[in-house]
Amino acid sequence: MNDERHVISVLVENKPGVLARVAGMFSGRAFNIDSLAVAPTADNSYSRMTIVTHGSEQIIEQIIKQLRKLINVVKVQDLTKGDYVDRELVLVRVKATAAKRAEVLRITDIFRGKVCDVSHDSITVEVSGTQSKIEAVLELLSPVGITELIRTGAIAIPRAKKTLKPTGNSE
Amino acid sequence: MAKINGAQILLRALKEEGVDTIFGYPGGAVIDIFDVMAREFSDVFKFILVRHEQAAVHAADGYARATGKPGICLVTSGPGGTNTVTGLATAYMDSIPVVVFTGQVPTPLIGNDAFQEADIVGITRPCTKHNYLVSNVEELARTIKEAFIISSTGRPGPVLVDLPKDVVQAKAEFEYPRTVELSTYKPTVKAHIPSIKRAADLIAEAERPVIYAGGGVITAGAHEELRALAEMTGFPVTMTLMGLGCFPGTHPLSLGMLGMHGTYRANMAVNHSDLLLAVGARFDDRVTGRVEGFAPEAKIIHIDIDPTSIQKNIGVEVPIVADARNALGKLIEALKKKGCSKANRDRLKTWHAQLTVWRNEQRLRFDRTSETIKPQYVVEKLYELTAGRAIISTEVGQNQMWAAQYYLFDQPRTLLTSGGLGTMGYGFPAAIGAQVAFPDKLVIDIAGDGSIQMNIQELATVAQYKLPIKIAILNNGYLGMVRQWQERFYDNVYAHTDMMAAPDFVKLAEAYGALGLRATTTAEVEPTIKKALETDGPVVIDFVVEREEGVYPMVPAGASITNMILV
Ligand SMILES: Cc1ncc(C[n+]2csc(CCOP(=O)(O)OP(=O)(O)O)c2C)c(N)n1
Ligand SMILES: [Mg+2]
């Protein structure tokens, strides 16, 4: 039905086992995780997770409530409800014989990517951007021959002043 | 300030929490705690040594359900911890405050597959409300305080605290915090007033209302408010299995239990209602049957302290996240202000007439002329002969449903039953917990022959602590509830549900020093129960009942709840 993509930002206490609690809640309740990225915030005692998921409105509501119910979760925000910026980083290694090299570099350039590793027969480039930008660059590179691909999953931040602050969450 | 070790910190903290009873089992990883307990705290705590750690958690759970206070367990690492898992999951599903302390191998050995090491925090994460590994003795006191707060507030639940042996042996200064600020945990207790007003408006207009009350009413201690609300509005009340006792079963407004084995009138009433006031109940599949067919004409008001329970299985018009007692109190105030109670009751005359029709159409019934003992008759007689004043625990299966149908619970905290997880083997240890809490009350486990064998070893615990528990086994020689499904839905193929090879329960009781009694005919039921009730010590009664009796009404799984098989 209306299984829309949602980007959920979760502020958690930076303690052992918290990632397992979040991931376990998703798998135990059969919710989807399309991607999950996590790292400490400016304040090292908290981490921020960006979870990309999809589901009906009712499922998304449950996901958010179940996240809030976890004791180590400080704040949960469905960024898709407002304006937000999201970025993903991809490292992609392509076959690049002398003949293809120029093409790879041109595509990388168009997407404002960077070359981060080169060998005799391959080039590794990094590109960051929205999900659709990443998808576009991969589509263009795939005829050249992608041999390895690593994506970080999206990280996202709300626009303007909706920054997550560590205040209480209700059970 | 003098430093004391982790074991002393733990036990002093428990004392500060007002703990009087601990259920558990010793082992290498907790030997220091047991040592301190015996040397320094023997007059503070009553320690109940069970015969299996699963029973320790069920007993703590039974203690908690009967008293409203958290139940406490102490077990060793590895197998001691893993044996608690079913108990934790049982308490988790039914929102029971239990705090379990497990021993753990010393911190330097964690992760090394050390002797009796198990990642109990990992294992129990999905079946506890929260859990902790205490890695530093300095954190111990605060962690215990947090465990008690989390376990017993909001929607209660089990909390596990894992204690590595070196932490237990290390020393620290002890000061028990009066309270701790949990910035990430703040249950919503107070109802949102505009929602209460909307609810009051719907209540004032309803013509075919039903109150659907669950275990949350008992947890919140909201039974008096519920009764006041029902009586002022004239609204009939149906209860979930977990809710039984939150409203008097003998009250003229009680419709009895609803759901899969609910009464005909409760299920009919819910499905014809135009307003459903759900309080402390969670629209479980055993209650709703096919969700699309559940209360199709009703507007729903849903009061629950757990936001995840609301809009999970069913859409509701007025969600109210709050403690049931607070919300019902506010609702009563709002209705009083509206001054609508009298008019309200007059408007419900037709509805009450219809409820009476349904009651008379189909009452709970069984063959009263049978010479072979009908299990329902046993429960009915237990009810009569105890004047409804016993604390009843149940096992799981037909015995549980007959107990729910034929014992009328007038008081909260008098039925101890595993509702959410449906744990066979729960009832007996739960009865131990209740009996330890209330030595002078009558505690009866209504059991099945299958379930009782799952924790039968606890007869030794009962003997050791001289607990006068009565166990009434409805012995049908079958895993009866499963057999009933096989009869109804699997062409009478009784695949591995025949349990005729059972011990002689009378001799078994005697082997453990309890009194064993047996009744094999209907005429023997009453005198046998009387004899059991007159006996001071523990009694096991083997009621040899009709083998293939069924529990009715029955709503097949996934069917609409008016789709009842009546007999
Ligand atoms: C631990 C556990 N295992 C399996 C089941 C599945 N089950 C539900 S009822 C039942 C039969 C119970 O038999 P008994 O205790 O004799 O009760 P009866 O239904 O005969 O009254 C079984 C096996 C369960 N509920 N719990
Ligand atoms: Mg049986």
From TrEMBL, chain A:
What processes in GO biological process is this protein linked to?
A: isoleucine biosynthetic process; L-valine biosynthetic process
Q: Which Pfam families match?
A: ACT_AHAS_ss (PF22629), ALS_ss_C (PF10369)
Name a single GO cellular component.
cytosol
UniProt lists the gene as ilvN
Tell me yes or no: is Amino-acid biosynthesis among this UniProt entry's keywords: yes
Q: What does this protein do?
A: Catalyzes the conversion of 2 pyruvate molecules into acetolactate in the first common step of the biosynthetic pathway of the branched-amino acids such as leucine, isoleucine, and valine.
Q: Which GO terms describe its molecular function?
A: acetolactate synthase activity; acetolactate synthase regulator activity
The record ties this protein, via NCBIfam families, to: acolac_sm (TIGR00119), PRK11895.1 (NF008864)
Its family? Belongs to the acetolactate synthase small subunit family.
Subunit arrangement? Dimer of large and small chains.
Full protein name: Acetolactate synthase small subunit
Sequence ranges assigned to domain ACT in this UniProt record = 7-81
Which chemical reaction does it catalyze? 2 pyruvate + H(+) = (2S)-2-acetolactate + CO2
Which InterPro entries does the record match to this protein?
Answer: Acetalactate_synth_ssu, Acetolactate_synth/TF_NikR_C, Acetolactate_synth_ssu_C, ACT-like_dom_sf, ACT_dom, AHAS_ACT, AHAS_small-like_ACT
Please name the SUPFAM superfamilies in this protein's record: ACT-like
Give the pathway: Amino-acid biosynthesis; L-isoleucine biosynthesis; L-isoleucine from 2-oxobutanoate: step 1/4; Amino-acid biosynthesis; L-valine biosynthesis; L-valine from pyruvate: step 1/4
PANTHER family the record matches: ACETOLACTATE SYNTHASE SMALL SUBUNIT (PTHR30239), ACETOLACTATE SYNTHASE SMALL SUBUNIT 1, CHLOROPLASTIC (PTHR30239:SF0)
Q: What EC number(s) does its UniProt record assign?
A: 2.2.1.6
Keyword set, alphabetical order: Amino-acid biosynthesis, Branched-chain amino acid biosynthesis, Transferase
Automatic annotation (TrEMBL), chain B:
Q: Where in the numbering of this chain does the Thiamine pyrophosphate enzyme TPP-binding domain appear?
A: 396-543
Q: Which Gene3D superfamilies has this protein been placed in?
A: 3.40.50.970, TPP-binding domain
GO MF terms on file?
acetolactate synthase activity; flavin adenine dinucleotide binding; magnesium ion binding; thiamine pyrophosphate binding
Which CDD domains does the UniProt record give?
TPP_AHAS, TPP_PYR_POX_like
Could you tell me what reaction this enzyme catalyses? 2 pyruvate + H(+) = (2S)-2-acetolactate + CO2
Task: Please give the InterPro entries that the UniProt record associates with this protein.
Answer: Acetolactate_synth_lsu, AHAS_TPP, DHS-like_NAD/FAD-binding_dom, THDP-binding, Thiamin_PyroP_enz_cen_dom, Thiamin_PyroP_enz_TPP-bd_dom, TPP-bd_CS, TPP_enz
Identify the domain of life: Bacteria
Q: What is its EC number?
A: 2.2.1.6
Give a Gene Ontology cellular component term annotated to this protein.
acetolactate synthase complex
Tell me its cofactors: thiamine diphosphate; Mg(2+)
Instruction: For this UniProt record, give its keywords in alphabetical order, as a comma-separated list.
Output: Amino-acid biosynthesis, Branched-chain amino acid biosynthesis, FAD, Flavoprotein, Magnesium, Metal-binding, Thiamine pyrophosphate, Transferase
Q: Where's the Thiamine pyrophosphate enzyme N-terminal TPP-binding domain?
A: 5-121
The note describing how and how many cofactors are bound reads: Binds 1 thiamine pyrophosphate per subunit. Binds 1 Mg(2+) ion per subunit.
SUPFAM superfamilies linked to this entry: DHS-like NAD/FAD-binding domain, Thiamin diphosphate-binding fold (THDP-binding)
Q: Tell me the pathway.
A: Amino-acid biosynthesis; L-valine biosynthesis; L-valine from pyruvate: step 1/4; Amino-acid biosynthesis; L-isoleucine biosynthesis; L-isoleucine from 2-oxobutanoate: step 1/4
Instruction: Name the family.
Output: Belongs to the TPP enzyme family.
Q: What is this protein called?
A: Acetolactate synthase
> What is this organism's lineage?
Bacteria, Pseudomonadati, Thermodesulfobacteriota, Desulfomonilia, Desulfomonilales
Gene from which this protein is expressed: ilvB
